[in-house]
Amino acid sequence: MHRKVVIIGSGPAGLTAALYAARANLEPLIVRGLQPGGLITTTNEVENYPGFIESIGGYDLANTMEQQAIKFGAETLDAIITHADLSERPFTLTTDGGATVLADTVIIATGASPRKLNVPGEDALANRGVSYCATCDGFFFRGKRGVVVGGGDSALEEGLFLTRFVTELVIVHRRDSLRASAIMQERALTNPKIRFEWDSVVEEIVGEEKVTGIRVRNLKTDATKLIETDGVFPFIGHVPNSQLFAGQLATDESGYLITDHRRRTGVPGVFAAGDVVDHIYRQAVTAAGEGCQAAMEATWFLAEQEFLAKQAESVAA
Ligand SMILES: Cc1cc2nc3c(=O)[nH]c(=O)nc-3n(C[C@H](O)[C@H](O)[C@H](O)COP(=O)(O)OP(=O)(O)OC[C@H]3O[C@@H](n4cnc5c(N)ncnc54)[C@H](O)[C@@H]3O)c2cc1C
Fold it and tell me: Does the beta carbon of 241 sit less than 6 angstroms from any atom of ligand 1?
């Protein structure tokens, strides 16, 4: 299989890249990966994607994006890329089924996975009180109690955002001081809705149909206790899905791929978009926007390569 554009990932970034590449007549191939539709499919209601007055389900949103791209000629492949050789063009991608896909350009849209607490109850109560996105789900906790886990900037930022909705917020942090920036610390420490549970780790998320509490252990005293809550928001970091390109593409110290403002990686013909690059905004709309940029860049790159090849041919003739 040899394609002009291969897109790794089928979340908002990958699907938007596919739409733009398909409309440029490039018949892109979308490799869907383990999570077709991407992270957004894990939420029931998306209320902040422009164009939908009523909320839309995350699965429906991703499915609509995919159908739109397919309508213009994109193709999907249900596979995981397990190996990528970006040392020469065409690039060689290998799937978990052992197939080889050759690509003149690659758009990496593999996203980032929220780092989990890995405690009992976390998976079973996901989307039933456990959420990894306060910006996305905070609104559903109006008038309820919330818990944030973490002590960095994103934990405090998301926690402060949650205080717009919740009646009280407990921040569980494993140390007795915060890692976050001074300004975020001051805002959180002086917010009357926020209480800190210092030196503590979550050992269990409790609830049957939905979250009713968390069990925490104090690391200094070893005492455990139950904190009643309606929502748990772990913000202990994200893990960008960039391991596949280790040693081939530059990353920051947390593993996020580095691109320039035109979504170009250090390898000409390889572009990256969405949460695998972006550790700040992490929204469907920003991922989609970057996917659009990556596809437009891939289109221009291919046109330039074609022009250069023709020029070389005419010089040779
Ligand atoms: C619970 C929750 C609720 C959210 N709600 C909202 C919201 O309301 N509004 C909003 O704007 N954002 C929301 N977000 C954030 C949003 O989902 C992400 O910002 C967005 O999905 C990022 O898109 P992406 O395409 O970059 O990556 P992702 O959506 O993470 O997609 C990554 C894709 O890469 C694929 N992949 C990974 N590795 C491989 C591989 N090796 N081979 C092939 N494919 C691979 C996966 O299968 C997946 O299809 C929410 C997130 C969560 C977790």
Answer: yes
